[in-house]
Amino acid sequence: MLIEELSKQSCLELLCRTRLGRLACAQGTQPYVVPFYFACDNNYIYSFSTLGKKIEWMRANSLVCVEADEVVSPQNWMSVIVLGRYEELPDTPEWLTERAAAFRLLRREAMWWEPAYAKTAIHDGVRSLEPVFYRIHIDEITGHRATREPTPDIRLSTIQLLRRWLVAKDFAAIAWRA
Q1: Dihedral angle computed from the Cα positions of residues 18, 108, 82 and 76, in that order, rounded to the nearest 10 degrees
Q2: How far apart are CA 59 and CA 90, in angstroms?
Q3: pLDDT at residue number 64
Q4: DSSP letters along 97-159, please?
Q5: Full-model pTM
Q6: Full residue range of the structural domain in which residue 158 is found
Q7: Mean pLDDT over residues 139-157, rounded?
C-alpha cells in the first residue's frame, strides 16, 4: 500500500463531494466527537443542528476539528482533516445572507435536516428543536490517500515507456523482414 499526501485542492474536492463526517470539539481537556452532515463551499463547512452539547461546547470554545473520508477498501481510501473555527449564523437580519447560503447548500441533499431535527428523548425530557445554522472557517486542511502500490511498469516514466515501445516496434519490424 502507498500512502500519499493530498494537495489542498484535492482535500477541498473530497469535502465538496462528501456529506457525512465527524466533528470534534472540546471543553477543557475533554474532547467530544459526533457524526454530522455538512456542505462545503469556498473556505467554509456549513451545517445545521439543534441545541445540545455540541452547540454549547462550540459556543464556549470555537476551535474545532472535522474529519471526512471516502473508503473503498482497506487499501484504497482518502481522509481529510480540517482545523477550524465555529461561527454561528444567528437568525438576525445582519446574518440573513449567510443563513440563506447555508440553507441553499445544505438542501441539495435530501433530508439534510432530519438527523439534527429528529425528536430526541433525553433523560425523561425532550431536546429543544430550536434550529442552529453554523459554519466552520477552514484554517488548515490536510489529507492523505492510500492506494495499492503501483506495479513496476506503472512507475515507469512516459519517456521510459516510449523507449520500450520504440524498441519493441523496431524489433517487430526486423523480425517481420526476416
Answers
A1: 10
A2: 12
A3: 98
A4: HHHHHHHHHHTTSTTTTHHHHS--EETTEE----EEEEEEEEEEEEEEEEEPPPPHHHHS-HH
A5: 0.74
A6: 151-178
A7: 77
Report the SS3 class of residue 90. Answer: coil
Nearest to 1 by CA among 156, 145, 143: 145
Could you say which DSSP state residue 1 is in? -
Q: Residues 164, 99: one domain?
A: no
pLDDT tens, position by position, 29-41: 999 999 999 999 9
Strands 76-89 and 63-73: antiparallel
How far apart (Å, rounded) are the C-alpha atoms in residues 29 and 31? 7
Instruction: Assess whether 124 and 62 both reside in one domain.
Output: yes
**Claim to verify: residue 142 and residue 157 sit in the same structural domain:** no
Are 6 and 46 in a shared domain? Answer: yes
The residue whose grid cell reads 443563513 is 99
pLDDT in tens, 53-90: 999 999 999 999 999 999 999 999 999 999 999 999 99
Looking at the fold, whether 61 and 33 belong to one and the same domain comes out as yes
Q: Are residues 155 and 134 in the same domain?
A: no
28/53 same-domain check? yes
Considering the domain architecture, whether residues 97 and 157 belong to the same structural domain is answered as: no
- Three-state DSSP state, 75: coil
For residue 136, what is the domain's CATH number? 2.30.110.10
